[in-house]
Amino acid sequence: MPHVELAAGVYWVGAVDWDARRFHGLTTPRGTTYNSYLIVDEKTVLIDGVRAPQADIHREHIAAIADPASIDYVISNHAEPDHSGNLETIMAAVPKARLLATKDGVKRLEHIYHGGWNVRAVEDGEELDIGRRSLRFIHAPLLHWPETMFTYDPASATLFSCDAFGAHIASTQRFADQLGCQAVLAETKKYFAFLICAYRKALLQAMAKLEPLEINTVAPSHGPCWRGGDVGLLLENYASWARLELEEKAVIAFASMWGATRRMVGAAAEGVAAAGLPVRVYDLERSDLSEIIADAFNSRLVLLASPTFESGIYPPVEALIPYLRVPRIKGMHVGCLGSFGWGGGSVPKLIRLLEAEGHQVYQPALTNRFFPDAEGLQACRDFGRAAAEWARAAE
Fold first, then answer.
1. pLDDT of residue 173 exceeding 60
2. Active site residue 3
3. Which of 46, 131, 216, 226 makes an SS bond possible with 41, Cβ 3.0 to 4.6 Å?
4. What domains appear along the chain, each with residue ranges and CATH number?
């Protein structure tokens, strides 16, 4: 894929990874990109690299614009190897270049690569004069490592945001509007839930630094860039997610061995919908856990349903609990229901796990022996309605 000019003198020179299917436990069914950017001015600047296996294509994209040896500065917004994996190759090819990172970034790059390069730490708000423009460094720690920063180009009003505002999408098109902004937002939210949400306080602090800036283009390190009026859509959604503004919807995640729990869930979903909450139901043995977490973390209500398995929680349901920890959210409004044969046990244990995680659990929970009859199905509808009304009334 050829390079792409994002603005005058600003080029995308990254690499597309069509085959990536998992990243930090996050499923990536659409692959991803490792975005790197080249700015050509009186000085030539490379912002971030790519994963090591994409080093050759990265060099080809750079060489199509400028002699790689002419690069004066290499900026490392983030030391993680998906952005710096080919840094050894880069620095060997640009002997006169200065490597720039935050103070913590300098340390991390040395710990990872032991390169002994010509490297300098940059301060928050520091500017780098490269000719007709000056680049500004904006420290953004914990997005999503402690050393992360943004680089801002006032001349083109481009924010190089590294992991923030990214999405895992492999494409030959470089802008969100070319792929459909709502479709990209869905992947952006999934990415946010897994990689950024845990650091939402740091994110809001970083976004506060961006408020005075004119931003025409957001150029993240993964997925498409955002431009023009769509930048506002991206930033508004990101701020809403960071503030944990709940959406008026519910998620039900379940697994079922013989169909009894599935039948209970269907009736409970009717009750939730009757209380005015749109609901989405996920079968944990068929659904993508990454998608469930992205849907659930800012939902008004989450219901978990499990049959009893060896006096405990059915393993596909129990496997969801560690994923619920990923966004580091306490106090989610959750409810539990499930079926059993003779001894029971899944629902009480599920409640204890959720309460131990700091979530608010609707009581009383609902259990049913084997398959629900007409009365049992009505109890499930009543449970769903009551849980939804409880969640809607809660702060």
1. yes
2. no
3. 131
4. 4-242 (3.60.15.10), 247-393 (3.40.50.360)
